[in-house]
Structures are given as structure tokens and as C-alpha cells.
Write a structure and sequence with these properties.
The complex is a heterodimer of chains A (308) and B (295). In chain A, 72% of the residues lie in helices and 1% in strands. Chain A is mostly helical. Chain A has one domain (72-307): MetI-like (MetI-like fold). Chain A has a two-stranded antiparallel sheet with strand order 1-2. Classes of the chains: A mainly alpha (308), B mainly alpha (295).
């Protein structure tokens, strides 16, 4: 990636006027133009409009009315904003570390060459990744049904009380959302780390073994440091994905019970599409967007210093 | 004699803990496999049950009335589920074809062509991936529905997705690492045009990369939920996932779980077939994406 950013010096080529050079390469510009056109129309356009909207009152019809910072003030004071922000952060920072930990453990196990059937396990663990979150939420909704689900039947059969998973306590519902998200996503993380493990040269382990390192030590001293770029990549991508969490809580609980699983995106959706409060929703969208950028930026900084 | 028995004891001392370790490891791996597979099993048998059997005091491990296909006939005859199922395939297929075409062309230009500003434009394109998508969700919705009047059409799914930054980045990486410059130079000397060398040299060589991009586009497009929820509402236009979500009902309409389960099975079956057919490309796509992003 770095070689792309550094411009290549034109060696032994006579410099022609820039315009002439550009016209000569019109076809190359044509090839890359679809991205820039669609980006301008479908991303920059809406972004600029969102900025204007966030300072206006607009109900989806009639004229827009300039209200200054009022929307932002309303959203900051919104009683739900802290709860949804808290929920989103809880989901993100429980799912992220546990997801990495579980996936590295399983990847190391499945990377063992003398473990018959490891390919089958890999296939099975990755299976949920291709399925549709809407469907998974439907099935989990039945498994974790408050009165007649599989999980409660299991609990009752071993003498434990049934739990109102989805409409009882907030933490039970959060737990189901977290479990479901792991169920879908962990296979992807395992594959990623398996790729990372396979990129490590066997000679390095050989050298560590000759130096007297046991398996545990070579995991901490060789495997983990060499997996850092993969952990970094996963953290950056997964943080953005998790802060945008929508499908799972929408299908499973609609954000309930009493807002315990309502994420930022769910709130944005119900404000903008459900409530037609486009001005407020745009301001809220900007606040979330800035938050995601800030969190990503801080994480990248922290991890850069960790990778060294 | 003495020497061999000591050796044998040592072997047992190594073998028994190893065997126990193996048994524990396999137990763990199998339990985990059950955790991942059980919801699929539950969906499959559930699709043959009525609501009362789906939610009974003692969950049914096996459909009590046998493999009764009432749910499926109801789903296709009364609800017309074939239509949303087809729509999902249609949206995802057209999105994939467009993405493969436009991303390969742009990736080719960024990887192999030399033109002023190329690297700077590529860097700008990468930066746009950091843009907060949350901030544009509502105005994007308004733009599509209120200004372009594209509700219940598929343009909002296709036009912005055809030339995505990620796809172009992926194709650039594939093309620059697998198409030798000499081959392109030789083609130019032989009088092959830019378009000609793209179709005759680049495309055949990066076909594996193209299949990776196709799969990584098709799956999320097929499974997308938020955008269909925003854009589509007409029964003839909705996607399968949206149709299933609608079975969940509202505060006044009761959920129809048996139909949801049968519909879920209908959507999942082709996805699983797809997975087993393209497992290799899918896995290599994910690992290569990570290798290129991570390293």
C-alpha cells in the first residue's frame, strides 16, 4: 500500500505539458470515473445535505427552516442518547475482545496439522457467516423464547429457573444479542487468524524451539507478535461494524426491553425513518459519525504504538 | 528386558496425557460444532411444524406430525414467497455483475496504467472509505425516496455499489500482483489496444480475483437488510429478508412463526449451497483481504 502513495519519479521521460498528458490518458480517467462520480452523487451529496439538514427543521415535505444549533441541542439533551450510546459501547467492547480471544484460540487449535478433521470444524464454525442475520434472529428468538424456548426448557430440566431472555431483564437480552453476534461472526475472525498463522514461516518456530522455547512461550513470543497486524486490521474493521450494529437487535428485540438493546443506529432509524424527524436525525447522524471517527482514530493511534 | 519396560513406561507417560488431552479437545470442538449447527437444525425441523408445536412446553426434537409441508405450500401458494426470493437473487446478481465490471476496470487503471495524479487519486479513494456512513444514512434515504423518487426500485442498491472503493482496492491488489508488466507491454507492441489488453490479458489472469470480488459482493447484497427496509415496501418488490421480517407482524398483527421458519429454510438452503460451492474462493478472499489490509 505504501508504494501507491509515493509518486513514482518519471525517469527518462520527457515532460509534456500536463493538460496534454491528461488528454492523452482520457481512457484511464474514464475507467476510474465511475467511482468518483458515484461517490460525489451518492456520498458527498448526501453528506453535504445532511450538514444543512442538521441545522434545519424538515418533515419530509414543505420547506426547510433554518434553526441553527437547535437540533444538536435537542439531541445532546435527548434522554435516550446516553442509554443507546452506553448499549452500543457495551456491545462493542464486550464483543471485540472476546471475539479476538476466542478466535485466536480456535485458530491456533485448528492450525494444528496433526489434528484430523480440522477442515470439517473450520467449515462448521464458518457456516453461520453466510446466513442472513434476519433469519438467525428469527431462530434465536424461538430458541430463547421467554416461556417456551429450547434454552428455558433446558434450564428447567436441570432444575434451574427459566429466564425471561428477551422481554425481562436488560442484561439477559444483551447477552442474547452478544451470543448471536458471536455465533455469526466468530467464523470470520477464525479464518482471518488462520490466514495470519499460515503466513508465519515455520523456520521461526524451529528457531524458537532450538533456543529452548516451549509451545506456550513460542505462542506468546512468536505467534502473538506476528499476529498483531491481523488483530489491528480486525479491530479497525470490527469496531466500525459493531458501532453500526442494527440488524440483530432490530430483529430480535426491536431495541427492548425498555431500550436495553437499542443501539445508536436503531435510534437513528427510529428518529429519521420512523419519526420523520429528519433534522434531528441528521444532527444525530453527524454526532455518531464523529464519534466513530474519533474512536477509530484513537484506536489506530494506540495500536500503532503497540505494533511499534 | 529392563530397558524396554522403562521405555514402554515412558511412552505411556507421554501417550496417556496426550490421549486425554485429545479427547478433551475433541469434546470441546464437537460441543462448539453443535452450538454452531443446532440453530440450522432447529430451523429445518421447525419449518415442518405449526406455531403451537414450535412453542410448546417441551421443545420438539422432531416434527410431531412428520415432515408436513403445509408451511411451504402456504408460503408459496398464498404468500407468493417466490417473488421476494427471486428479487433478492436479482438485486444481488445485477449488483455483482456491475461491481465486477467497474471495479476491474478501475483496478486495472490504478494498477497498471500510468497517468497524472494516479497515486493521489488512489489515496483519495482509500480515504473515502473512512467516511462516516451513519451521517449520510438519513439524507441518502431522502435523496433516493424524495428527490430521485426511487422507492420500490433497485437503483439505490446498484448505482452506488457498482464502483465501490473496497472492490476497486481489492482488484488493484489482485491485478498488480498477478499480471506481469511484460505481458501488457508485449501486447501493446503487438498492436493491442488498452481495452483489448484488458479483456484479453488482464481478465483471464485475474479470474480468481474476480470470483473473490463476486462472492464478497453477492453475499452482503443478498443478505442486506437496512437498505431494503428503507427503500422497498411494495409486495412485488421486497426482498426475501424483508418479507421474513414482515411475518414478524406488528402490534396488531400476530407473528407467523411457522411461515418465518419455512421461509428461512428457503433462503438458507441456496446460501449453504453457495457456501459449499465457493468455500475455497470465499476463504481465500477473506484471508487475502486481511493479508493486504493487515500487512
Amino acid at each position: 500500500m505504501s508504494e501507491a502513495v509515493v509518486a513514482r519519479p518519471a525517469i527518462g521521460r520527457p515532460r509534456r505539458p500536463l493538460l496534454q498528458e491528461i488528454l492523452k490518458h482520457w481512457m484511464d480517467y474514464l475507467f476510474i470515473s465511475p467511482f468518483f462520480i458515484s461517490f460525489a452523487v451518492f456520498a458527498l451529496g448526501p453528506l453535504g445535505w445532511a450538514l444543512v439538514l442538521s441545522f434545519s427543521e424538515y418533515k419530509g415535505y414543505g420547506a426547510m427552516r433554518w434553526v441553527g444549533l437547535e437540533n444538536y441541542q435537542v439531541m445532546v439533551k435527548d434522554p435516550y442518547i446516553l442509554q443507546t450510546l452506553g448499549n452500543t459501547l457495551v456491545f462493542t467492547y464486550i464483543l471485540l475482545p472476546t471475539g479476538i480471544l476466542i478466535a485466536i484460540t480456535l485458530a491456533v487449535i485448528l492450525n494444528n496439522k496433526d489434528l484430523p478433521g480440522r477442515g470439517i470444524f473450520r467449515t462448521i464454525y464458518f457456516l453461520p457467516y453466510v446466513t442472513n442475520t434476519v433469519i438467525i434472529a428469527i431462530v434465536f428468538g424461538q430458541l430463547f423464547d421467554d416461556s417456551m424456548g429450547w434454552i428455558n426448557a433446558g434450564l428447567l430440566s436441570i432444575g434451574l429457573p427459566a429466564v425471561k431472555w428477551l422481554r425481562g431483564s436488560g442484561w439477559a437480552a444483551k447477552f442474547v444479542v452478544i451470543l448471536l453476534t458471536h455465533w455469526t461472526g466468530i467464523g470470520y475472525n477464525i479464518l482471518l487468524f488462520l490466514g495470519g498463522l499460515q503466513s508465519i514461516e515455520p523456520e521461526i518456530y524451529e528457531a524458537a524451539r532450538i533456543d529452548g522455547a516451549n509451545e506456550w512461550q513460542s505462542f506468546w513470543r512468536v505467534t502473538l507478535p506476528l499476529l498483531r497486524p491481523f488483530i489491528f486490521f480486525l479491530t479497525v474493521m470490527a469496531t466500525i461494524g459493531l458501532l453500526n450494529m442494527f440488524n440483530t437487535p432490530y430483529m430480535l428485540t426491536r431495541g427492548g426491553p425498555s431500550g436495553a438493546t437499542e443501539t445508536l443506529m436503531l435510534r437513528l432509524y427510529s428518529l429519521g425513518v420512523g419519526g420523520s424527524r429528519y433534522g434531528d436525525a441528521s444532527a444525530f447522524g453527524f454526532l455518531i459519525g464523529m464519534l466513530v471517527i474519533a474512536i477509530s482514530f484513537i484506536q489506530i493511534r494506540l495500536q500503532r504504538s503497540w505494533i511499534g | 528386558m529392563a530397558v524396554t519396560s522403562v521405555r514402554r513406561q515412558r511412552q505411556w507417560g507421554v501417550l496417556v496425557p496426550k490421549l486425554i488431552g485429545r479427547i478433551l479437545l475433541y469434546t470441546f470442538l464437537i460441543l462448539l460444532a453443535v452450538f454452531f449447527l443446532f440453530p440450522f437444525y432447529d430451523m429445518f425441523i421447525g419449518s415442518f411444524m405449526q406455531d403451537s408445536d414450535l412453542f410448546s412446553r417441551h421443545p420438539n426434537v422432531w416434527p410431531p406430525n412428520g415432515f408436513d409441508v403445509t408451511n411451504y405450500t402456504k408460503l408459496f401458494r398464498e404468500i407468493g414467497f417466490a417473488r421476494p426470493l427471486f428479487n433478492s437473487f436479482y438485486i444481488a446478481t445485477v449488483q455483482t455483475l456491475g461491481a465486477v465490471f467497474f471495479c476491474s476496470l478501475a483496478g486495472f487503471a490504478f494498477a497498471k496504467r500510468r497517468f497524472p495524479g494516479r497515486d493521489r487519486l488512489f489515496a483519495i479513494m482509500l480515504l473515502t472509505m473512512m467516511l462516516p456512513y451513519q451521517a449520510t444514512l438519513i439524507p441518502y434515504y431522502l435523496l433516493m425516496v424524495k428527490i430521485f423518487k426511487w422507492s420500490d426500485t433497485y437503483w439505490p442498491f446498484w448505482l452506488p455499489a457498482w464502483a465501490g472503493a473496497f472492490g476497486i482496492f481489492l482488484m488493484r491488489q489482485f491485478i498488480s500482483s498477478s499480471v506481469p508488466d511484460e505481458l501488457l507491454e508485449a501486447a501493446t507492441i503487438d498492436g493491442c489496444s488498452v481495452i483489448g489488453s484488458f479483456f484479453r490479458i488482464v481478465v483471464p489472469v485475474v479470474l480468481p480475483g474476480i470470483s473473490v470480488l463476486a462472492i464478497l459482493t453477492f453475499l452482503p447484497a443478498f443478505n442486506d437488510f437496512l437498505l431494503p427496509l428503507l427503500i422497498l415496501s411494495a409486495p412485488s418488490k421486497i426482498t426475501a429478508a424483508l418479507a421474513l421480517a414482515n411475518f414478524k407482524g406488528t402490534t396488531i398483527i400476530a407473528p407467523r412463526y411457522s411461515l418465518m421458519f419455512a421461509g428461512s429454510a428457503c433462503v438458507t438452503a441456496p446460501l449453504l449451497a453457495f457456501y459449499f460451492a465457493f468455500q475455497k474462493q470465499l476463504i481465500s478472499g477473506i484471508t487475502s483481504g486481511a493479508l493486504k489490509g493487515g500487512a
